[in-house]
Amino acid sequence: MEKPCTLLVHFDKGTPAMANEIKEALEGSDVAAKVDAMKRAIMLLLNGETLPQLFITIVRYVLPSEDHTVQKLLLIYLEIIDKTDARGRVLPEMILICQNLLNNLQHANEYIRGVTLRFLCRISEPEILEPLIPSVLTNLEHRHPFIRRNALLAISSIYRLPNGEQLLPDAPELVEKALGSEQDASARRNAFLMLCNCSQDRAVAYLLSNADRVPEWPDLLQMAVVDLIRKVCRANRPDKGRHIKIIISLLNSPSTAVVYECAGALVSLSSAPTAVRAAANTYCQLLSSQSDNNVRLIILDRLNELRKSHREVMSEVVMDVLRALSSPNPDVRRKVLDIVLDLVSTKNVDEVVLFLKKEVVKTQAAGESDKDAGGEYRQMLVQAIHACTIKFPEVAGSVVHVLMDFLGDSNVASAIDVVIFVREIIETNPKLRVSMIQRLIDTFYQIRAARVCSCALWILGEYSLSLSEVEAAISTIKQCLGELPFYSATEDAEPTTDSTKQPHAVSSATTSSRRPVVLADGTYATQSAASETAGVAPSVLPGSLSSIPNLRSLILSGDFFLAAVVASTLTKLVLRLEEVQPAQAETNKACSAALLVMVSMLQFGQSGFAPHPIDDDSYDRIVLCVRLLCNTGDEVRKVWLESCRQSFAKMLAEKQFRETEELRAKAQISHAQPDDLIDFYHLKSRKGMSQLELEDEVHDDLKRATGEFTKDADDASRLNRILQLTGFSDPVYAEAYVTVHHYDIVLDVTIINRTKETLQNLCLELATMGDLKLVDRPQNYTLAPESSRQIKANIKVSSTETGVIFGNIVYETSNVMERNVVVLNDIHIDIMDYISPATCADVTFRNMWAEFEWENKVAVSTVIQDEKEFLEHIIKSTNMKCLTPPSALEGDCGFLAANLYAKSVFGEDALVNISVEKQADGKLSGYIRIRSKTQGIALSLGDKITLKQKGGDH
Amino acid sequence: MVVLAASVLTKTGKVLVSRQFVDMPRIRIEGLLAAFPKLVGTGKQHTYVETENVRYVYQPIEALYIILVTNKQSNILEDLDTLRLLAKVVPEYAPSLDEEGIGEMAFEIIFAFDECLSLGNKENLTVAQVRQYCEMESHEEKLHKLVLQSKMNEAKDVMKRKATEIEKSKIEKGKFQTGAYSSISGPRRSESGFGDINISSSGSGFGSGSGFGLNTESIDSFSSKSKDRPAASAKAPPKGLGMQLGKKTQKTNQFLESLKAEGEVIIEDVQPSAVQSKSVLPPTDPITVTIEEKLNIIVEKNGALRNFDLQGTLSLQILNQDDGFIQLQIENRDMPGLSFKTHPNINKDLFNREQIIGLKDPNRPFPTGQNDVGLMKWRIQKMDESSLPLTVNCWPSVSGNETYVNIEYEASDLFDLQNVVISVPLPALRDAPTVNQIDGEWRYDARNSSLEWSILLIDHSNRSGSMEFVVPPADQSAFFPISIKFAASSTYSDVKVAGINSLKGATVPKYSQRVQLITDSYQVV
């Protein structure tokens, strides 16, 4: 393991601090100057200087200082200097400091003693510690608790050293004795922890003999108890009951931290439903009693973990979890809903949905004060209800009507969610159809958003079956369109009289910039700004709009897509009417009315009064509707009345299928392979196994956190990473073995002296380009003839970017007193090491796409002929995930569009959109667009794609 | 349940201070902290971030983040408690909550972190307790020091007593040299023997001399009481007696006082002994004449002299009593406003007539011993600006965002000045001021916030000099009062001892004279 680093202090390189200046100040008698010089010396040391000449100065002039700050700084200095030579032996001069430490341990000032004891915890050289041990032990009985606390810590860490038992053979007994008579909470905790770590039997014995008093113990000690119990119970099962009893008694501790810890311990000790239930209840209590969002979120994480392993128990506490929705924090609410939705079962679904419904109503009551937050929350609730009803369609009836009140919600997103929900329910729940259509017809006039409108229209067109429904639908639409024609001669003359029209015209004229968006299926579309403004406009002019029917105002603002939807809905309704209306005259009347609407829309679209003229697609669509109504046929009727619904049903089915597929895939992952090795903890041999394997997961977690515990990749792939840095005929041969960790790159450089001379002051100088930073300063080495040496260089990485490391090796030979330089090959750091495939929702992807500033557009140039093969190739070579569902990529239509997504270890997002088309000559053409928040990713990923997209030859 | 590290970062992600409580390599902690700013989202209502392996719990304060790095199993409730404590502690120590403020007090913050988290385990402390632990005020240490001090004082008492004994024995030796007869009674002899032991153990140059004295004593044991007594009463015995009497009471006193209060009482006790031990060192010539003039000057900014006061003293130190029968011939420059005052025991007539200092009673010797005996004082007043030994001119001028301060000095050619220190007070600054140009050397005293311009020697080669430094904008008055210190080896009055006449007609003993002019206080206001 590398030398541990105990502190970092920002060092401003601008301030010059020369070693001799520091030395002078240290030698002087001015305490302030001395303190300052010590600080500077420490900073220089932290910055990689070695300052060997300072040591003696410090021993001579700083050691005897009486000042407390100087003494403390001295301890820090001693903490960070190298105390051993290259071979791991303690440097002889370290003996000089021992006397000083000894004096400090017997110092009259209790704080000096305490601080020195604490410093000893960070010392691992037995040679230094040995002479100090008697003094450490006497401090155990000092009457000041500050000293005792630290003495216990020191004893604990000394005992845990590799040869600690020899240094302090009777430490556990002493500590146990001390623990018995100790009063100070923190000292007791330290003593107890020492026993836990060094002599578990004693700790357990002490705990069990005091089991009754544990609930009265101070919270610090209780924490240690919980920790111990968790450890002990892994190994020692028979008396688990007694331990669990202690834990249960601690669940009523006044300290919430202890309670939280207990709950965690309970779960890890036992999977019995009682224990899990107790833990879950505890968590729920904490959830409602703690107002801190951090705590709530983390408790929810714990509950989520419980959910995975103990579903049945958790579904009992669903309602308790739901209560946390009262928190105003959206993250908390989202997490709560996630947990709850997964736990919904036939037993509790009614309750859950009822609660959700109440919450929805509450958001409405909350009113306009927190409109944004309320809207977002409502959207979450609607989605949650939606998910519930998909699982348990029978509950839909109780909520759908309440939800339909929100079709006219000013929050477009939640209204869209509602309408999509309605669309799905009406298909899957035929029983509700009649009442829902009725309700939709009633509330249709409230709908303000164009997208919601078009969806509602589709529902009306598709599911109005009976005569009365069809007629009501037609009349509602007509009503919403208002008086025809859309504009008149008077408007021609005085266009300003129309108060609503003018602002729309202005606003869309100013915002009619066209911006590209990515659609859900990955197609790269150009969206006209007008439709966006149309969605926004109603909230801008609520007063005037109340008088004008919604469809009319939307169409007047130039939303011709909506006009096309209106046209096709009317067509559909008229076709249906033909089937159900016995009176031919009525049908004809309706038909001609519909034709009139369509024609006026076309007329309006082509007149100069629309904010912009009608687009071709909408025009064609409306014209098609007109033509259909003029001469209908069975074929057409079938397409319009049946196939449409069929494909919708198919879409729903596929969605469901995909979800179940995913679930199944998830379930499969969690199972072990049939031929997997099974570890029996109790059968593991204690001998010859590394400490790591015997530790429990808490320790693993700690080790991972400190970076000590990294999974080794298999050796074969490691060998691929060896890079030759110099030529074989160079006087110095170097090769590097590059390991890329998360935030750092380690270069293990092997340097071989190939000459017959001794190379002096050999130095590996590295420089970096990109967001890379060298951590250590290069050191000088002397290399004997034909010998080799391993040099390790650490490079810090702070963002995802292709980086280059340059370097050279500089050395001197004895006879030529000039520096020789060998230039090294560049080391390229690949962006692929930093990004990993990830998923995100469609909407987030598109939001990010709109938001990110950097775009890199790469023209497709490849030898691959097949679009899908090309996509596969790009996915493979960029290590990204395709977000576009495979069903959307099916078929062979000559073009393909897909979205890819990946996340870097630094949490940066990388978005890629591929749009390719097969040319007539069989070649693929198109573009790959990369977007990211930072330039680095966009550029590096672009380079990577340009390099790899050719394909074929690999 | 251990905190891995407690750190302070700027909002931009620069690591200002980080204290690790668990062993981890530098690259790891730097990596973790470097990743943090990227992970912190904006607009979040919670203040923790989790990655695959660690959890950061943070709290933004002004331009900073205070961060605890923990593992993911860590107890969030405890960590939040700790974080709250840290967030209270950091502003306690940092003068300002930004990069500079933290950088200045980085180590103090690390010390405080160490107290808040003992090796990563939470401590239930309050801010006041952390403060107390960091200040390290220890009652026990004070007691311990007092005990030590009283022991030292005791030892010094012994030393003083020994010193007087040595002197006594020396005087006896001197008497022997001048042919006086003396007899030593039993107890005296034993005393001197004791002194002798002390001397030889101290191993100083006296050892051999008084060894000789002992020998002569044993041979010559005549002594007239009349001779011995006045000498004894003149100096040593009362002192020694006082010490001996005080010995017991003083010891108890020391304890009482130590219990009562701080160490100031003791310091008073220390100083005289320190002076004495110092003055023991240069027993060069048998007679030393010290002539000293002290200046008390206040000059206004514009150069006008507000106050000029010069006080001179002539003092005499005679080591051996036999050399005490002398008269001093004085000479001085004739100056207006110069008036002398002599000690009441001095023969005024003689002085006024012939400028000779001698005692009224020619049969009495001058007091002897280690102390200077003041014989004559004089004053000079009503001098004008032209006679100032050194004038200093300070010109602060504001230019843009900075204040340029030009200082020049001009020394009169009457004196060669040594160890000139001109200290200019500065407004409270973060960094040392930038000195653009300087004749001599400078030093910035951050504690007192002053700039010290020191010139080792001003002689004919550098009668004038200047310096210029730049500080952030400040009021002109901030740079006053400037105080000036120097010393010179000649005086205004030019009082000198021209010669020494021995009244006993024996050979004139060797004498040395020290002449110096020093500033008591010289301020430009």
Automatic annotation (TrEMBL), chain A:
<keyword id="KW-0333">Golgi apparatus</keyword>
<feature type="compositionally biased region" description="Polar residues">
    <location>
        <begin position="496"/>
        <end position="513"/>
    </location>
</feature>
<comment type="subunit">
    <text>Oligomeric complex that consists of at least the alpha, beta, beta', gamma, delta, epsilon and zeta subunits.</text>
</comment>
<dbReference type="InterPro" id="IPR016024">
    <property type="entry name" value="ARM-type_fold"/>
</dbReference>
<dbReference type="Pfam" id="PF07718">
    <property type="entry name" value="Coatamer_beta_C"/>
</dbReference>
<dbReference type="Pfam" id="PF01602">
    <property type="entry name" value="Adaptin_N"/>
</dbReference>
<comment type="function">
    <text>The coatomer is a cytosolic protein complex that binds to dilysine motifs and reversibly associates with Golgi non-clathrin-coated vesicles, which further mediate biosynthetic protein transport from the ER, via the Golgi up to the trans Golgi network. Coatomer complex is required for budding from Golgi membranes, and is essential for the retrograde Golgi-to-ER transport of dilysine-tagged proteins.</text>
</comment>
<dbReference type="InterPro" id="IPR029446">
    <property type="entry name" value="COPB1_appendage_platform_dom"/>
</dbReference>
<keyword id="KW-0677">Repeat</keyword>
<dbReference type="GO" id="GO:0006888">
    <property type="term" value="P:endoplasmic reticulum to Golgi vesicle-mediated transport"/>
</dbReference>
<keyword id="KW-0653">Protein transport</keyword>
<dbReference type="GO" id="GO:0030126">
    <property type="term" value="C:COPI vesicle coat"/>
</dbReference>
<dbReference type="InterPro" id="IPR016460">
    <property type="entry name" value="COPB1"/>
</dbReference>
<feature type="region of interest" description="Disordered">
    <location>
        <begin position="492"/>
        <end position="513"/>
    </location>
</feature>
<dbReference type="GO" id="GO:0005198">
    <property type="term" value="F:structural molecule activity"/>
</dbReference>
<keyword id="KW-0813">Transport</keyword>
<dbReference type="GO" id="GO:0006891">
    <property type="term" value="P:intra-Golgi vesicle-mediated transport"/>
</dbReference>
<dbReference type="InterPro" id="IPR011710">
    <property type="entry name" value="Coatomer_bsu_C"/>
</dbReference>
<dbReference type="GO" id="GO:0006886">
    <property type="term" value="P:intracellular protein transport"/>
</dbReference>
<dbReference type="InterPro" id="IPR011989">
    <property type="entry name" value="ARM-like"/>
</dbReference>
<dbReference type="InterPro" id="IPR002553">
    <property type="entry name" value="Clathrin/coatomer_adapt-like_N"/>
</dbReference>
<feature type="domain" description="Coatomer beta subunit C-terminal">
    <location>
        <begin position="674"/>
        <end position="812"/>
    </location>
</feature>
Automatic annotation (TrEMBL), chain B:
<comment type="similarity">
    <text>Belongs to the adaptor complexes medium subunit family. Delta-COP subfamily.</text>
</comment>
<keyword id="KW-0968">Cytoplasmic vesicle</keyword>
<keyword id="KW-0963">Cytoplasm</keyword>
<keyword id="KW-0813">Transport</keyword>
<dbReference type="GO" id="GO:0006888">
    <property type="term" value="P:endoplasmic reticulum to Golgi vesicle-mediated transport"/>
</dbReference>
<keyword id="KW-0472">Membrane</keyword>
<dbReference type="InterPro" id="IPR011012">
    <property type="entry name" value="Longin-like_dom_sf"/>
</dbReference>
<feature type="domain" description="MHD">
    <location>
        <begin position="284"/>
        <end position="525"/>
    </location>
</feature>
<dbReference type="GO" id="GO:0015031">
    <property type="term" value="P:protein transport"/>
</dbReference>
<keyword id="KW-0333">Golgi apparatus</keyword>
<dbReference type="InterPro" id="IPR027059">
    <property type="entry name" value="Coatomer_dsu"/>
</dbReference>
<comment type="function">
    <text>The coatomer is a cytosolic protein complex that binds to dilysine motifs and reversibly associates with Golgi non-clathrin-coated vesicles, which further mediate biosynthetic protein transport from the ER, via the Golgi up to the trans Golgi network. Coatomer complex is required for budding from Golgi membranes, and is essential for the retrograde Golgi-to-ER transport of dilysine-tagged proteins.</text>
</comment>
<dbReference type="GO" id="GO:0051645">
    <property type="term" value="P:Golgi localization"/>
</dbReference>
<feature type="region of interest" description="Disordered">
    <location>
        <begin position="220"/>
        <end position="248"/>
    </location>
</feature>
<comment type="subunit">
    <text>Oligomeric complex that consists of at least the alpha, beta, beta', gamma, delta, epsilon and zeta subunits.</text>
</comment>
<keyword id="KW-0931">ER-Golgi transport</keyword>
<dbReference type="InterPro" id="IPR036168">
    <property type="entry name" value="AP2_Mu_C_sf"/>
</dbReference>
<dbReference type="GO" id="GO:0030126">
    <property type="term" value="C:COPI vesicle coat"/>
</dbReference>
<dbReference type="GO" id="GO:0000139">
    <property type="term" value="C:Golgi membrane"/>
</dbReference>
<dbReference type="GO" id="GO:0006890">
    <property type="term" value="P:retrograde vesicle-mediated transport, Golgi to endoplasmic reticulum"/>
</dbReference>
<dbReference type="InterPro" id="IPR028565">
    <property type="entry name" value="MHD"/>
</dbReference>
<dbReference type="Pfam" id="PF00928">
    <property type="entry name" value="Adap_comp_sub"/>
</dbReference>
